Amino acid sequence: MNVGALPPARMRRLTDMTTFYAILMDGMIYASWLFLVAAGLTVIYGVMRILNMAHGSFYAIGAYSAASLVGWYFSSNGEANPYWSYAILVGCALLAGLVVGFVIEQGLLRFMYKRNELLMVIVTYALLLILEDATKLVFGVDPYFTYQPYSLLGRSMIGELAFANYDLALVGASVVVGGLCWFVLNRTHTGKVLRAVIHDREIAVAMGVNVRLMFAGTFIVGTTLGALAGALTAPSISVSPGIGVEVIVLAFAVVVVGGLGSIEGAVVGALLVGLTRSMAVHLAPEIELFVIYGVMSLVLAVRPQGLFGRTVARKI
Amino acid sequence: MTYIDRTGLWLIATAAILVAGAFVLPHWLTFILTLALAKALVVQGVVVQMRAGLVSFGQGLFFCVGGYAIGLGGNLLGIHDAFALLALGLVASVGLAAVIGLLMTRYRDIFFAMLSLALSMILFGVLVKSQTLGSTDGFNVHGVSYLGVTFDGANQKIAVYILTVVVSCACALFLYRSQHAGIGRVCEAIRENEIRVEYLGLSPRWILYAQYLVAAAVSALGGGLTALATGHIDPEMAFWTTSGEFVFIALLGGTMHVAAPFVAAVLFAFVRTYAIEFTPHTWQMILGLVLLGIIIFLPKGLWSLVSRNRRVKA
Amino acid sequence: MKRLKHIVRPMAVATIAAAAITAVASPSVAAENGKFRLGVVTFLSGGAAGPFGVPSINGAKLLINALNEGKVPGPYGQKGINGLEIETVVIDENGGATKQVEEFRNLAERHKVDAVVGYISSGDCLAISPVAEELKVPTVMFDCGTSRLFEENKTPRYVFRTGLDAAIDNIGAARYVVDTNRKTSAVASIQQNYAWGQDSWADFRAALTQLKPETKIATEQFPKLFQGQYGAEISAIAVSKPDVIHTSFWGGDMEAFVLQGAARGLFDKSAAILTCGESALDRLKGQAPNGLILGARGPFGAFAPKNELSEWFHKSYVAQVEMAPSYPAYKMAQAILGLKAAAEKAAAGKTGIVPEKEKVLDAFTNLTFESVSGTVAMSRANGHQALQGISYGEYRYDAKTKQASLANVKSYAGDCVTPPDGTTAAEWIKAGFPGAKCGN
Amino acid sequence: MSTPILETKGLCRSFGAVIAAKDINVRIEAGEVVGVIGSNGAGKTTFINMVTGYLPPSSGDIRFEGHTLIGKAPRKIIRMGMARSFQVAQLFPELSVLENMLIALVAAESPRPSFLNPVSTPARLRQADEILTEFGVERFRDSLVSAVPQGARKLIDIAMALIGTPRMLLLDEPTSGVSVEEKFPLMDTVMRAVRHHGVTVLFVEHDMEIVERYVSRVLAFYSGEIISDGIPAQVFADNRVRELVIGHGHGAPASEKSRSKA
C-alpha cells in the first residue's frame, strides 16, 4: 500500500478558508442533529433520573412512522402539494411520541419509580430489545427511502460549497426545540414546578407538587422529542433496522459530556462533539472513529459530572 | 484455612459431573456449555462489581483483551500452549485494569457505567482500525496445544470443554470464598453506604480497585476460553451490546450465589438458541420480555427461586 | 402483586425446569426422514437485513419451493435435490461470529443438516470455515467477499464459495474507470469503517494505481458503519475536488450517501463508482444522478445475462415479491443451484437418496453448472471458488416511465479480474495482473 | 503539661459567603466528656466534619495526640484512633444488624480485608453478640437494619464506631430523631460503654438537660465561633450563651441548608 501525498495536502488544508467554513458548517449541522437527538434524553433524565436506553427506539419509531406515512402520501396521490409533507413529518412525530410515551409510562414505568437509577437503566435496556423487534414487526426490515422532503428544498452555496437547505433548516429546527425547552423551563409556571422537581424531588412532593403527573408529562415530552428527531432525520437517510441502536450511544455521549439532565449542557455537548468530529473528518479522518468516545472520556476524567452537571455533596 | 465447605463440595461435584459429561453428551451440547460457562466467567466479573453497587456496561473490554491475547499470543509471539495463552490474557487484562482502574474507581453509578462503556468502545474502535488484525473480520486461532499435547477435530473441542469446566470451577471456588471473606462483605457495605465504610477506616477505592482487577482477571479467562472454543476472535467482543448481554445474564441469575451466573448463562444460551430457532424474527423481543419479567417478579434473579425453596424446607 | 408472586414463582420454576429438560433431552432428529435438510443462514435483523438478507431469503424460499414442486426450468427439472424434498432450517446471521459458530454447530450436530448455504458477513465466513472443515459439513458461502477465505483455508474440502471475491469488484471497478477514460488525478474515497470498506479501498487503490500510475489520492473518509449522516464527509470530499469517488457503501448507508451527496451536487463534477450500487437500482427513483457507476458484485441482478433460467427467476421473483430481484437474491439462488448440481452429479442417477457426502464434495470441486447468472465454473481455490466475470454500468433514470436502467455496461471476464490460484489478490495487483486475459 | 488528645488552632472554614468556622481554638484532654451546643448553623457539624477529615478547613491546624490531621482522609484519621457517629445513623440498610457488626469487626482488624478468610468466624460472632448485648440491641441481631427503629439504629451506629477501639469518639447529635422517653436510656447506654472503654468523648447536642447531665465541659458555638468554653454551670450562666444559644431553643429557623453543607 502506498500512503503518499496525504500529510502535505492536510497541511495545506489547515490554512484553507473553504475548509474552515466547511468545518464550521458541518459541525453546526451535525451539532444541531445531535442536540435534537439528545434533548429528549436529557429532559427525561433531568426530571425522572432515568437514563433511557430505549431513547434510540423512540427515534427509530419516529423515523419509521414519518418515512412510511410521507412515502404513502407521495405514492398515493402524485398531484398532492409536496410541502404538506413537512407537516406530516412533525405530526407523525408528535402522534408517535405521544402514544408510545403514554403507553410505556402508564403501562410499565410508573410501577417502577421507586427502583434505583441503575435498575431503571436495565429496564429501559429491556424496552430497547422489545421495541427493536416491535418496530421490525410493524415496519419490516426493508429500508424506507423517503427523500422528497429532503430534495424538495434544494441547495444553497456557501462559499464554494453547496449545502442542502434541508440540513440548514435542521439547524433552525433545533434552535426552535432548544428555545422551546428553555422557555417552558424558565418562563412558565410548569417550568418552575419542573425545576423544583429537578432540584429536590422530596421537597417538591412536600410542597404539594403532583410528581406523578410531572413524570408522565415529562416522559411523554421526552419520547416525543426522540420521535421528532427521528422524523426530521428520516428524509435525509434510509430508514433501516438498527438506526435506533446507532444513535443511542451518540446521544449518551452528548448528554454525558454536557452534564446529565441539563438542557444547556446538551447544547454545549452537541456543539463540542459536533465541531470536534467535523474537525476530525476534515483534518484527520483516521481518528474520526474515536473522537466521540475520546471527548467523552476526556470530559469525564476532568469533570465527572459533565460540563453543566451539578455535584450534590452528601449530607452526613 | 483452606477448608472447603458444603457449597465448595457441590461446586466440585458439579464440575466432576460436567467433566464426565464430556464423554456422554452430544458435541453440540458440550459446545453450548463451553461457551455458556466461558461467558459466565465474564458475568462473574460483572456480578463481583454489581455486589459493590457498580454496573459495568463495558466488561467486554476485558473479555476482548482475553480473547485477543489468545490469538495474538499464537500469531505474534508463537505461544501455542493453552495454559500459557490464558495466563497471557490474564496478565494483559489485569495490567490494563491496573491502569484504567485508577480512573474508574473514582466513578459511581451511571458515570461508572458510561465510562466503562466508553473505554470498551475505544478498544473496539482501535481494533476496527487495525487492518493487520483483520479489522471487524477478526482472525482465527490455530494450533493450540495442551501441555504439549495437541488434539484434532472433536477431541480438541472436548479438551476446551474440560479446560473450561476446570477453570470455571477454580474461579467459582475462589469467588465463593472471596464473596464470604472480608473483601466480599465490605463490597456489599460499599454498595450500601460508602461513607460509613470510609469511617470504618477502610479505603473504598482500594477495595473497588482490587475487585476491578479480579473482575478483569475472570473476564479475561472467559474471553480466552471463548476464543479457544470458537477458534475465532473479532472486535465485536468489545462492542457495547456484548457487554449489555453480560449485564443481562448477571441480572438473570442475580448476585446472591456464585453458581447463579453459571446457571443463568446456560439458561440464557438455551433460551436464545431456541428463540432464534423458533422465532428468528423476534428473539430479541423475547429476551427483552424475559428481562422485564425477571426485574418485576424476581428482582434478585433466578437464584431467589432456589434460596426461597430452601428456606421453606429448613 | 404479592399474591401474583406466589403464583409466578412456582410457575417460573416449573417452566424453567421444563425448558431445561426439553432442551437437553430433545433428540437430535436424524435427517433420514427422506428429505434433504438444508441450513440457510442470512441476515434477518440488523442493518444488513433489508438490502441483503431479505432479498436473499426471498430468493431462497422462491427457488426451494419451485425446486420442491419441480418447476425450475433448464437442467434443474428434477424435484428438490436429487428427487428429495428440501427442508430448510433458517438462522438469523445477526449477532456476531461467536454466535454464528455456536449456531453452525447446532445446525451440524443437532439438526444434522446435509449442507449449509449462507453467510454475508466476511467475519462470519472466516469464523465458520474452519468449523465447517472440522465438522465435515458441506458449506456454500453465497455472498461474503473476503479474500482471506481461501488464503487462510488453503486446502478446502467442505467449504465452497459460489460468490465472488471482493477484490474482483474493485479490480473490475478500477478497469472500468480506466477504460471509460476518466481523469484520476484526484481520487476520493469514502468507505464504511470496517474490514469490508478498508479492504475494498485498499484493493481499488492498488489496482487503479497499477493501471494508471499518475493516480493521486485526494481524500480518504472512513465514517462509522451505519452512521447515516455524511454531511462532513461530503464537504471534505467536495473540498478535495475529486475526479472520481470510490465507495463500497451498501444498504441504507449507500442510499443515504447518494441522497445527501446528490442534494449537494457532489456528483455533478465527479464520477462516482459504487461497487454495491445495483442493490438499490430500483429504489433510488431518480435521486441518484444519471451517470453514477453501479456494480453488482458479479453478473447478478440487472447485470445478469438473459437466458431461460435468469428470466424465469426474475419473473417469478417479481410475481412473488413485487420488486425486481437485486443481486443478493441471485447469489443465493446460485449457491443453492450449485449445491443441487453437485449433489445430483454425485448421485449419478440414483434418485431419491441423499448422495454420499464425500461424493458430493468431489462432484462440487471444479464443477461447471448453469446458474441464474449464466455458466459458473468452480475453478479457483482448488476448485472451491467460483470464477465469474464482473460488470459495471451507469445509472439511467427515465422520469417518464419511472424506470431505472443501466447504460455503458462493460463486462470483464473472470480471467481478466481474478488472480490465479497460489497468489493473493494484493500480490497479483502489485505484480501488474500477470496472466490476465482481458477481451481487448 | 501533657499533650492534649485533640487540639485545634485557628481553624477556619467558609462556604461561599457563609462562615461556618472562624478561628476555633480548642484543647481537649484525654478523659474529658465535652458537650457542644449551638443553634442550627452555628458550625457544630462542620467542626466534627473537619476534625474527622470529611471537610478540609480553609486554614488552621488540627492535632490528634500531637499529630496533625490536616490533609488526612477520614480512614487515616480513624486508624489513628478517632471515631465518630452521625446525625443520621450511617449503616448498611440492606444488611442485617449482625452483618453490620461483622463488617465493622473485619474493618477494625486490618485496612486490607482478606480475599479468602471467611468473615463469620466463631470468635467474631461472639464479639458481635457481646457488643450488641452491651448496647442492648441484641434482639435486632438478625433483622435488616432498614427494619430497625430509629433509636436502635443510633445505638448500632455508635456501637460500630466503638468497635475500632478508638481513644476519642465524636458523637453528632446522638439523640436527634429519638423519642423523648428513649433519650436518657440511650445516653445511659452510650456513656456506660464509653466509660467502660475509657474513651474521650465530644458530642453535639441540642437538649440542654442531656448536656447538663453527662458532660464535664461545654463548648458553645455561635455563627462559627466559640463564644463560651467551661464547665456546664459556668457556660449556661453566660449571658451571651443564654441570649444567642439557649434562648433560640432547638428549632431555630436558621437555614437548614447552610448547616448541612457537609
TrEMBL record, chain B:
Keyword check for Transmembrane helix: yes
Membrane topology recorded in Swiss-Prot or TrEMBL: Multi-pass membrane protein
Top-level division of the source organism's lineage: Bacteria
Coiled coil: none
UniProt keyword terms in alphabetical order: Cell membrane, Membrane, Transmembrane, Transmembrane helix
Residue spans crossing the bilayer: 7-25, 60-77, 83-103, 110-128, 158-176, 206-226, 246-271, 283-303
Intracellular or extracellular location(s): Cell membrane
Pfam family, one: BPD_transp_2
The UniProt record lists the keyword Transport: no
The protein's name in its UniProt record: Branched-chain amino acid ABC transporter permease
Organism: Magnetospirillum sulfuroxidans
From TrEMBL, chain D:
InterPro entries: AAA+_ATPase, ABC_AA/LPS_Transport, ABC_transporter-like_ATP-bd, P-loop_NTPase
Organism: Magnetospirillum sulfuroxidans
Ranges of residues in domain ABC transporter: 6-248
Domain of life: Bacteria
Protein name (database record): ABC transporter ATP-binding protein
Alphabetized Gene3D superfamilies for the sequence: P-loop containing nucleotide triphosphate hydrolases
CDD domains in the record: ABC_Mj1267_LivG_branched
Keywords: ATP-binding, Nucleotide-binding, Transport
GO molecular function, one term: ATP binding
Signal peptide stretch: none
Pfam families referenced in this protein's UniProt entry, alphabetically: ABC_tran
